[in-house]
Design goal:
With 207 residues, the chain is α+β, with helices and mostly antiparallel strands. It has a single domain, classed as Lipocalin (Beta Barrel), CATH 2.40.128.590. Helix content is 16%, strand content 44%. A ten-stranded antiparallel β-barrel has the order 1-2-3-4-5-7-8-10-11-13. The radius of gyration is 19 Å and the shape is globular.
């Protein structure tokens, strides 16, 4: 029995030595909550005007400084019908705020379904990414398990026809993410995205 206890204690000691310490607990918690597979199936059952989507996020480049995440949104019924592929960098801004910076993958087709195997991104270089200027999302910690975030007003210009700029707001909590993206004309008229409210995702699997 003593020998077994010694083996367990030794294994725990080795694990703790090999595990990199978390330098920023609050930032780490924010990123951890957005990782995994999410679905808005429950929402679509109540309101058929919302498309049934899956949101999947996985951490990549763990050997590099900071927190890098690949995120993909696709139709729940058809994985090949992908709406969005992005690389997100999460970092702390100051004592109260965090931000995520969005990058478009120039050869994104090569990385679809990348959430299945994060190692595929080891060959992806920063010069293969294009910064989405003005589209940073700024987060604040509301409670120990809730973070809210949004883009700056009028700063995220759109490539969608007739849409001048886009705003996005997020609420991230334990096992839930809500995302509300809206597009506006130059005159400030709402012409893209849901009017009734955000897409509400629930976590269905961890990553």
């Amino acid at each position: 029995m003593k020998q077994l206890s010694l083996i367990i204690l030794t294994a725990l000691a080795l694990f703790s030595c090999n595990s990199a310490p978390v330098k920023d607990v609050e930032l780490h918690n924010l990123v951890t909550m957005i990782l995994g597979e999410f679905s808005n199936a429950e929402q679509t059952e109540k309101d058929a005007s919302f498309r049934h989507l899956n949101l999947k996020s996985v951490r990549i480049w763990k050997d590099r400084p900071g927190y890098w995440v690949y995120t993909e949104v696709h139709e729940a019924s058809e994985n090949n019908n992908i709406y969005s592929q992005r690389i997100l960098e999460y970092e702390r801004v100051d004592s109260l705020n965090f931000k995520s910076t969005s990058y478009k993958i120039l050869n994104e087709k090569e990385y679809k379904f990348g959430w299945q195997n994060a190692k595929v991104f080891n060959k992806l270089t920063l010069d293969s990414l294009r910064l989405k200027e003005g589209c940073q999302v700024y987060f604040k910690k509301k409670t120990s398990t809730i973070y809210s975030g949004k883009t700056n007003r009028d700063s995220c210009l759109s490539s969608i026809k007739s849409v001048n700029h886009i705003t996005s707001s997020f609420v991230v909590s334990k096992n839930k993410i809500s995302v509300w993206t809206r597009g506006y004309s130059k005159e400030g008229k709402h012409i893209f995205g849901k009017i009734s409210g955000p897409y509400k995702y629930k976590k269905i699997a961890k990553r």
